[in-house]
Design goal:
By secondary structure, this protein is mainly α. The chain contains 31 helices and no strands.
């Protein structure tokens, strides 16, 4: 991001005036009293309307106070009166560069081609005086923005050869080194500039940027705050840095303060409103959060699609807390949209169930509120099998266990007409054969519907048909990018295989208790793996746990009914069944 202005040091290039009024104005600027200084310059210009020093000082104050129209008016008048002033042309070019770089600012104006105006005035300035350090420094900033790194470095080095203590050139060089990721040289350059002028606000801000890049937020805040203390103007880039670094430090009130400040200077920046919405949400300022999110969406409607995609990706990555927050946010913003309600409530219920799967008896603090959302949706439309199943998953998550009542409810759901809902319900209750039959009947869905169903199934650890449905969604839209979800399924299957291998190793060493635990872990990860239930049954036989052995073989036969046609298996099963009675 281009920094607004090159600092007061640039004014020292101009010849000093002995008049007490100008001395007083300069001192007021040094003390940070820019408004008082501007008043003196204004009165001085009434008496000396063509004084270039006063004009440039007035323009720089206006730029730093975000009064770009006033700065433009002063500079254009100065250039008309002093057509040979390279510094005036360069400052005007710099102003147009700033204007171009503020598409979301309060002064944004899309009616003029500021890029062309900036280019025109930098060429004019270099033509008038290619030996001016100020002109060279401003022109270098422009080249840096255009990624003309060679020209930028040449102009900055030339400025320093002409005037070795010219601080704006050192600051530009530091930005150049940061851009080319030569951090050691950037640090050395800005340290030297600070030695030359320990009261230059821009030096401290550039140091803060370096510290932020190094992920040292506490120190970045310290130097940015020092820069702010020394500066009489506002610098949105600095406000943004302070906001983000305070956020990293977990100092939410301070982060909020700077994001709120940014809305006054860059009111059309959708990302700022989005961050405000997130922080208001974090501090439970719900109405302010909703207003900020709606403002962001008004400014940049395509943010909504990125919000949905982030929520979906974090859901598939099983980032439970983050994904839940994102779906609640979308429901708050788009609660009147049926598609959002359908997908959001489904995702929340499945995420809570996943939390129960990983952490039984440790329900999420927001389970009750999300259950209320689902029940409210059901009250408006009771004949929704999906919502009924979502409610059951939330009840199981809240209770932290699959009670007999909930088991019976799921068995009832496994008989509904909707194959997808019935198949998922049957899977949840362990009726794997029924689950397979019902899910096999799912067909003719859209890409989005297949993806949503696959998401639901993956979150309850159903790996077989979630893979099938992601593949079907991908066939309908190859650009949608379901590879991450498919790789996650593959990694789960690999983990189950690893646990099975560990179980087999323990079994071969006759450590049957350890083997049973490893096989159970594998079966929990990949519940539709028939072979793992056979191994588990064999292990329970060795432990003489006959009911458990029978249950394991029952699961295996559900998944592979053909096992019973094997005389050896059928005979052994009959023996185990007898012992289990």
């Amino acid at each position: 991001m281009l920094i607004s202005g090159v600092g007061l040091s640039a004014l020292t290039l101009l010849p000093a005036y002995g008049e007490s009024a100008l001395d007083k104005a300069a001192q007021l600027l040094q003390d940070g009293r820019a408004t008082s200084a501007a008043a003196i310059y204004k009165e001085y210009l009434k008496v000396h309307p063509k004084d270039l020093n006063a004009q440039l000082a007035m323009a720089n104050i206006a730029i730093r106070q975000f009064d770009y129209p006033k700065a433009k008016s002063v500079l254009e008048q100065a250039l008309a009166q002093h057509p040979d002033s390279a510094e005036t042309a360069a400052t005007l070019g710099h102003l147009f560069q700033l204007w171009q770089n503020a598409p979301n600012g309060k002064l944004a104006d899309n009616t003029r081609d500021y890029q062309a105006l900036a280019e025109e005035h930098f060429k004019q300035a270099l033509g008038l005086n290619p030996e001016s350090p100020l002109v060279l420094s401003y022109a270098a900033e422009w080249s840096l923005q255009k990624n003309d790194l060679i020209t930028a470095e040449q102009n900055l080095q030339k400025a320093l050869r002409i005037r070795p203590t010219f601080i704006p050139a050192f600051q530009g060089l530091a930005r150049f080194y940061m851009k080319v990721r030569d951090i050691p040289r950037a640090r050395d350059t800005i340290l030297h500039a600070t030695e030359l002028d320990p009261l230059d606000a821009m030096n401290y801000f550039l140091t803060a940027q370096l510290l932020a890049t190094a992920n040292r937020p506490a120190e970045a805040v310290k130097y940015a705050a020092k820069s702010e203390q020394l500066d009489y103007g506002r610098l949105p880039a600095r406000d943004y840095l302070l906001a983000t670094q305070y956020e990293k430090l977990g100092e939410t009130p301070n982060a909020l303060q700077y994001y709120e400040t940014l809305t006054r200077y860059t009111p059309r920046d959708a990302q700022v409103w989005l961050k405000l919405g997130e922080l208001y949400e974090l501090t439970q300022q719900n109405q302010q959060s909703l207003t900020a999110f709606q403002k962001a969406l008004t400014l940049k409607p395509d943010i909504l699609s990125s919000l949905y995609e982030e929520a979906r990706q974090n859901t598939r990555l099983e980032k439970i807390e983050v994904a839940c927050k994102q779906w609640r946010r979308l429901l708050n913003i788009r609660g009147s949209d049926p598609a959002t309600v359908e997908e959001g409530l489904s995702a929340l219920a499945s995420l809570h169930y996943l939390n129960y799967f990983y952490r039984p008896n440790q329900p999420d603090a927001d389970t009750e509120n999300d259950l209320r959302r689902v029940e409210e949706a059901l009250a408006q439309n009771p004949d929704q099998p999906n919502r009924q199943l979502d409610r059951l998953k939330l009840l199981i998550a809240r209770q932290g266990t699959l009670s007999e009542d909930r088991r019976q409810d799921l068995l009832v759901m496994s008989k509904v007409n909707d194959d997808a809902v019935a198949g998922e319900a049957a899977f949840l209750v362990g009726e794997l054969k029924t689950a397979h039959e019902r899910l096999e009947g799912v067909d003719g869905l859209s890409e989005a519907e297949y993806a949503r169903l696959a998401d639901r199934l993956l979150l309850v650890q159903e790996l077989q048909f979630s893979k099938v449905f992601y593949q079907r969604a991908s066939q309908l839209n190859s650009a949608a990018g379901y590879q991450m979800a498919l790789k996650r399924i593959q990694s789960k299957q690999s983990l189950a295989a690893q646990k099975a291998d560990e179980g087999t190793l323990a079994f071969n060493e006759k450590n049957y208790e350890e083997a049973s635990l490893k096989y159970q872990e594998a079966a929990r990860i990949y519940q539709q793996w028939d072979n793992i239930y056979l191994k588990l049954g064999d292990t329970y036989e060795k432990l003489k746990k006959w009911p458990e052995a029978k249950a394991a073989y029952d699961k295996a036969t559900q998944l592979s009914p053909g096992l019973m046609s094997s005389q050896g298996f059928a005979k052994n099963y009959a023996r185990i069944e007898k012992k289990a009675r």
